[in-house]
Amino acid sequence: MCADQRSGPGSCHDADLTCRDGIRLKATVWRPAGEGPWPTLVMRQPYGRAIASSVTLAHPQWWAAQGYVVIVQDVRGQGESEGDFRGFAQEAADTADTLAWVRSRPDCNGRIGLYGFSYQGFSQLVGDSSVPPPDCLAPAMTGLDERDHWSCEGGAHWWHLGLGWGLQLAALQAARRGDAEAWDTIRSALETGSYLREGRALLAQHDRQGMAHRWLSEDPRERQRWAIHSPAPGWLARPMLLIGGWWDPHLRGVLDLQARSLAAGGEPELHIGPATHLQWWPEVQELHRRFFQRHLIDADPNPTPHQQVHLWDQRLECWGGVVTDQAEGGCWHLWGNALSSHDPRLGQLRIAAASPASPPAAPVVIVHDPWRPVPAVGGHLSASAGRCDRCNLDARNDVVTFTSPPLETRHRLRGRPELEVIAWADQPGFDLCAALSVCPAGSDAVEQLSTGVIRRLGPSALEAQSQRLELQALEAELQPGDRLRLSLAGAAWPAIAINPGHTEHPCGPPSSHCRIITITIRSDSARLRFLPLIPAPSR
């Protein structure tokens, strides 16, 4: 709640919008000092408008001091807004109503920018065609595909993230109902970690209609049951600032937005930096300031072209120069045998053009024990997202590693790593969890760059079939003496649920229903290559 303070920069007051169906949405409005009208920034979020995404973005008071009206609105059914919260499906009409209302306000000069990340990034993308698009958009760490950008990867649900986010929304709904007991129960489960085991039941009890419960109840293999949202025509062609993080779970969604905007005739500006979902790099605020200054205040009809793609190098820990979205990295072959999970010197990773003749490879075997599943560390899906040293993890005997010889020259990796491998199991279900890392010259560290997973369930898991596993996109220039490593395991707990090895019980936490699974890999036919950074847009 904001008191009405109309004197001085950053003054704010509350305001109501009545939607086309009579539902009232509550917003807080911050205004600059002096007389308007001014350009206006709009954010629509479900977490309580007082937060205003300040966990990652500058507070509206700062934006007001830069000369903008800032409007942060509680979405329908959250905060102090009326109605029932139904997630993404409600946002197109409400975003359109909000834009029409903003344009009618006397303090708005007609120029509007939308900003925010995650849910707030989604809500700015889906206004319907009943109103013109905003002048510019800055969606960060978000996406339009409910399966591939919000809840699943490689046929497996996000477990830690899906439950954690769903329970946060469930707790907000409990507080809205005045149900302090439910709020305390949910909060306790998150604090103690018991949500990893009890989370599905808590969602069913306290927020059965919520998105997270619905997503976790859907089969990722049934593509037709998952929504892919489409912005109104013309929205994606507007000036767009896209912010992504190498360790953010929504990076695929940001890359898809880049592809969609380019296909629509837009010239989006993409920055992928050293960021998790909630921890960004400091210069992000200046990127936003310059973007909105250019498109809302200067409003040059013939702006100077800006570099389109900006990538932070994970190995060099700095921003690169001129960047394209073309894949770099080459094609790498794997070689190993049954002892490769016990002796890290035996698993080899060699670039195709430099691969010498090797003795015939034998099958590589991974034994997944659900009693002590391989944990997820770092990366974009784990509870410890970000940079990490996985040296101790790679020393486990249920993790198989393939490591290159020391590189003789610099070698750039750019794009979306894809592993193609023939694999099968002795049970009708298995997971294959991959990590790509660099072993720096002169160090025992194993610096993880990217992770990915593929899940197989049903009788086909028993058959030797080619599997394609796509890892998180990356940018890294390896140095002379560095070695590249690919690690494979049968679990990444609790980033993803444990595969029980059959279809009689759902994937979830370790339980008595989970079987020991022996996974066999034909390394002689496996290859690792790099796909272009920007994919074909989702349809």
Task: Give a short overview.
This protein is α+β, with helices and mostly antiparallel strands and 539 residues long.
Tell me what the structure shows.
With 539 residues, the protein is of the alpha+beta class. The protein is built from ten helices and 23 strands. The chain has helices at residues 60-65, 91-104, 119-123, 160-177, 180-192, 195-206, 211-217, 251-263, 284-298, 391-394, and strands at residues 11-18, 24-31, 38-45, 69-74, 108-117, 136-140, 152-153, 156-157, 241-247, 269-276, 309-313, 318-319, 332-335, 348-351, 364-368, 399-403, 411-425, 429-439, 447-457, 465-470, 474-478, 483-489, 517-531. The strands form five sheets. Strands 13, 14, 15, 17, 20, 21 and 23 form a seven-stranded antiparallel sheet that branches. It has a six-stranded mixed sheet with strand order 1-2-4-3-5-6, with helices on both faces. The protein has a four-stranded mixed sheet with strand order 9-10-11-12. Strand 3 (38-45), helix 1 (60-65) and strand 4 (69-74) form a beta-alpha-beta unit. Helix 4 runs antiparallel to helix 5 (180-192) and helix 5 packs antiparallel against helix 6. The longest helix has 18 residues, at 160-177. The chain is globular, with a radius of gyration of 24 Å.
